[in-house]
Amino acid sequence: MKRTESLDEFLTFANAAEQQGETGNVWVQQANYAAEEPIMSDEDVAGREPLQRLRVLLEAGEQPIYFESLFYSAAELEELTSELQPVFEQFSKEVLDAKRMNEKVQALNE
Q1: Which of 41, 50, 60, 103 is packed most tightly, with the most Cβ within 10 A?
Q2: Which of 52-75 are b and which e, b meaning 16 or more Cβ less than 10 Å from the residue's Cβ?
Q3: Whole-angstrom Cα distance, residue 28 to residue 104?
Q4: CA-CA distance, 28 to 39, in Å (whole number)?
């Protein structure tokens, strides 16, 4: 499995798979991101939106690709999903909870 934090790289991969007539699935998971240890105290982050994570796994062709992005605001999420919309339209999309996404990513790493 290929991992990327570059949205452009993910979109290029998806576009190439589409042009080759590949069918596949796109798995999506979005939730608050819980870091191992807080970097700031609760007082420092009062009133701020929590750090969130969008995870997208595309299984099309021989090698799946995994994209992950951290963001704070709904506007950032909207921008990401807008750019990912062609992928969501081309491939069968399913939203997963964190546990199922972790299992899927782990299985592909083995």
Answers
A1: 60
A2: bebbbbbbbbeebbbbbbebeeee
A3: 11
A4: 27
Stated pTM of the model: 0.84
Give the separation between CA 85 and CA 101, rounded to whole angstroms: 20
Number of domains in the chain: 1
pLDDT tens-digit profile of 42-59?
555 555 678 999 999 999
Does 39 score more than 70 pLDDT? no
Order of strands across the sheet that contains 2-4: 2-4, 65-71, 52-60, 24-32, 92-95
Q: Could you tell me the two tokens for 108?
A: 């592909």
CATH number at residue 11: 3.30.720.90
Tokens representing 6 are 């570059």
